[in-house]
Amino acid sequence: MANEVYLTRAGFHKLQTQLETLKTTERQKIAKAIGEARAQGDISENAEYDAAKEAQAHNESRIAELEGKLALVRIIENENIPSDKIFIGAIVTMQDLDNDEELTYMLVSPEEASYEENKISIYSPIGKGLMGHKAGESLEIKVPAGILKYKIKNIKRP
């Protein structure tokens, strides 16, 4: 299926948790805010009411978006992906050949990408540049800031 959303099991659970929070906690908070704003009387020029209704629309839109993604999820741990090459789900350790810094990234779908967790999208310039390469290879990746030079040291799967 062309529209599949590839996620790790942890990424899938994270989206499920977000969805559950939006459907329960957030809906309740927004409903309370709408009720309080209504209690103030005339809602035609009530900024609190308008803000609460806007928050409600945004919340419902996010719920629909998450439900759509979760309906298309394919968990990548169950895939038969070669472990000697870099593909989605791989944890890659590499040496930056310009500053000798060692970097480790996990290649994930855009939905799971997180700079803080060293998870980069397979569609980012670095992610695209790494795809299909093997340990021991040196490569150059063109990014907006210039060209990065790496040597792939290790590839593993979670």
Keywords:
single chain; 2 domains; Chitinase A, domain 3; 158 residues; Helix Hairpins; alpha/beta
Mind explaining what this structure looks like?
The chain has two domains: 72 residues, Transcription elongation factor, GreA/GreB, N-terminal domain (Helix Hairpins, Orthogonal Bundle), CATH 1.10.287; 76 residues, Transcription elongation factor, GreA/GreB, C-terminal domain (Chitinase A, domain 3, Roll). It is 39% helix and 25% strand. It has three helices and seven strands; from the N terminus they run βααββββαββ. The strands form two sheets. The protein has a five-stranded mixed β-sheet with strand order 5-4-3-7-6. It is elongated. The two termini are 25 Å apart. The relative contact order is 0.15.
Report a brief summary of the structure.
The protein is an alpha/beta fold and 158 residues long. The chain has helices spanning 9-38, 47-71, 125-130, and strands spanning 5-7, 73-75, 91-96, 102-108, 119-121, 138-143, 146-156. The protein is elongated.
Question: Helix amount, in percent?
Answer: 25-40%
> Which shape, going by the Cα principal axes?
elongated
- Helix and strand run: EHHEEEEHEE
Number of helices: 3
The largest sheet, given as strand count, sense and whether it forms a barrel, is:
5 strands, mixed
Poorly predicted ranges: none
